[in-house]
């Protein structure tokens, strides 16, 4: 295979160059039938490849031509047996992974701090989650991944589980020992599914953590659009065959995918793969250089702290991605949320995320030295205006106890519900999600029995000023619970 080739993008351009007379959708027909301002803004090139699965252009639902060739090249580049393109983001790929291995009633081992697409897939599939607590990092008030030890205990207790789901790396770029987790799960013939939304680039440089495919995982849902240079919404699902069949994955992906797949998104995956396969190592070398420089300069600013290697102190933090700048702003005496707003209003800088104690800035091949200089200059300016707070009164970030799951999340989702006062909800089954961020761990998910300890935990967090989110009633006085069946007289 030749990684310089882009069968899908090249095929689309060839088709466009033949100027076929189009009696098919999309009705804008190369932009001619659309709003003029938008047409001019988008440009003729982009609109000319906004096409549909007419015969010469293959079909994502049954790829046999140029899409299949593009997917095969991607599989080689990512070290997978099969790669499937997703035009529904990593959320679509995650739902496919879970629904490929779980049937109603099946168990799946998952960390408690998962993305909503994972909970959605658990509801769709009718699976029963077996939750593992992620490790909390009190220094930064963030949650990391799950340890090999915790996975071992969960597999011993639930050898009939149909999957272990791992977030690798986390949003903050931290990884546990994925290779060891894979070995443990495979001892029980349990496939390992990886949420690799924040890790498409890690496959391409030895200083970065092992990718899911390098660690031997079975499936990985990978956001090419987040850090790999393709357009927003385009992702891949990588498969190492053995415990999961590619036919099953293809048919579930097809069930969950629009029949009007965007060829602009697909072409961007084809070309991002070429760029990563050919230039990925050099791109990451330069990105790491910029991130190292940024970290060093940020750490010279009083009251600002951007951790490096020293963040790795436990089994849940075995490796990290230095291109993620976790910037602790605790000592500025400001919250991360306020720093985010200050940077926007004073320097037109937009960060990736902020929470109580931190902002997260990501460095990618799209950055230049001047961008890093601006970030450092802005934070220096902010630090000069603040009085450094040495004695930081940190709000302790605790983990809520995991309640007993009484109904599968799907049964709870479809059950009839009623709204009652939270203080009177002990013993009832929650029909809603309630979570605190940070650390982003749910207190209740639908189907779990509400305990007085967890209600106390909610109140403690509200009093500490931490945002408790989720329920329809955002004052948190009321909660939706499963309606109790009355016995017939
Ligand atoms: C950890 C994690 N998983 C999955 C997703 C879903 O990815 P996408 O937005 O591509 O659907 C996200 C998105 O932010 C995420 O942060």
Helix content: 25-40%
Oligomer: single chain
Identify the bound ligands: pyridoxal-5'-phosphate
Largest β sheet strand count, sense and barrel closure:
5 strands, mixed
Quote the average pLDDT. 94
How large a portion of the residues is in β-strands, by DSSP E?
5-15%
**Rg from C-alpha positions?**
24 Å
The low-confidence parts are none
Q: Give a count of the beta strands, DSSP E runs of length 2 or more.
A: 19
Major β-sheet strand ordering: 1-10-9-8-6
In whole angstroms, the N-to-C terminal distance is 73 Å
Structural class of the helices, strands and pairings? alpha+beta
Give structural notes.
This protein is α+β, with helices and mostly antiparallel strands and 489 residues long. Helix content is 36%, strand content 15%. It has 15 helices and 19 strands. The strands form 7 sheets. A 5-stranded mixed β-sheet has the order 1-10-9-8-6, sandwiched between helices. Strands 12-14-13 form a 3-stranded antiparallel β-sheet. Strand 2, helix 6 and strand 3 form a beta-alpha-beta unit. Helix 4 (66-78) packs parallel to helix 11, helix 5 packs across helix 10 (246-256) and helix 7 (148-157) packs parallel to helix 8 (178-187). The radius of gyration is 24 Å and the shape is globular. The model has no long low-confidence stretch (mean pLDDT 94). Pyridoxal-5'-phosphate is lined by residues 89-91, 94, 115, 117, 167, 171, 195, 197, 223, 235. Pyridoxal-5'-phosphate (PLP) binds next to helix 5.
């Amino acid at each position: 295979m030749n990684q310089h080739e882009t069968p899908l993008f090249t095929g689309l351009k060839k088709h466009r160059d033949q100027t076929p007379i189009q009696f098919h959708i999309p009705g804008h027909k190369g932009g001619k039938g659309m709003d003029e301002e938008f047409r001019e803004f988008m440009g003729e090139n982009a609109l000319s490849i906004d096409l549909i699965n007419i015969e010469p252009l293959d079909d994502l639902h049954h790829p046999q031509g140029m899409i299949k060739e593009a997917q095969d090249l991607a599989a080689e580049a990512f070290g997978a047996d099969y790669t499937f393109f997703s035009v529904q983001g990593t959320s679509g790929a995650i739902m496919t992974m879970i629904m490929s291995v779980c049937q109603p009633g099946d168990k799946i081992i998952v960390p408690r701090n998962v993305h909503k697409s994972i909970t959605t897939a658990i509801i769709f599939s009718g699976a029963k989650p077996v939750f593992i607590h992620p490790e909390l990092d009190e220094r930064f008030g963030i949650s990391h991944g799950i340890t090999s030890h915790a996975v071992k205990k969960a597999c011993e207790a639930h050898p009939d589980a149909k999957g272990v789901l791992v977030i690798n790396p986390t949003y903050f770029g931290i990884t546990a020992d994925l290779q060891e987790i894979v070995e443990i799960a495979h001892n029980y013939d349990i496939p390992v599914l990886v949420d690799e939304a924040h890790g498409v680039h890690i496959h391409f440089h030895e200083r970065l953590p092992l990718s899911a495919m390098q660690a031997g995982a079975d499936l990985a849902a990978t956001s090419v659009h987040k850090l790999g240079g393709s357009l927003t919404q385009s992702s891949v699902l990588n498969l190492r065959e053995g415990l999961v069949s590619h036919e099953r994955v293809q048919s579930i992906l097809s069930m969950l995918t629009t029949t009007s797949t965007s060829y602009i998104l697909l072409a961007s995956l084809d070309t991002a793969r070429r760029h990563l396969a050919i230039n990925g190592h050099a791109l990451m070398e330069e990105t790491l250089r910029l991130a190292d420089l940024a970290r060093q300069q940020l750490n010279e600013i009083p009251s600002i702290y951007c951790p490096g290697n020293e963040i790795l102190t436990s089994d849940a933090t075995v490796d990290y991605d230095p291109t993620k700048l976790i910037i602790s702003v605790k000592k500025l005496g400001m919250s991360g949320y306020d720093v985010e707003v200050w940077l926007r209003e004073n320097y037109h800088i937009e960060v990736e995320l902020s929470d109580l104690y931190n902002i997260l800035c990501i460095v990618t091949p799209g950055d230049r030295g001047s961008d890093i200089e601006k970030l450092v200059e802005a934070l220096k300016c902010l630090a000069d205006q603040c009085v450094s707070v040495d004695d930081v009164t940190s709000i302790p970030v605790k983990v809520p106890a995991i309640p007993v799951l009484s109904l599968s999340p799907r049964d709870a989702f479809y059950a009839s519900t009623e709204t009652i006062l939270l203080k009177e909800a002990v013993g009832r089954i929650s029909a809603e999600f309630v979570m605190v961020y940070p650390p982003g761990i749910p207190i209740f998910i639908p189907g779990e029995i509400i305990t007085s300890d967890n209600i106390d935990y909610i109140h403690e967090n509200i009093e500490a000023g931490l945002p408790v989110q989720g329920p329809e009633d955002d004052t948190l006085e009321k909660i939706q619970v499963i309606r109790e069946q009355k016995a017939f007289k």
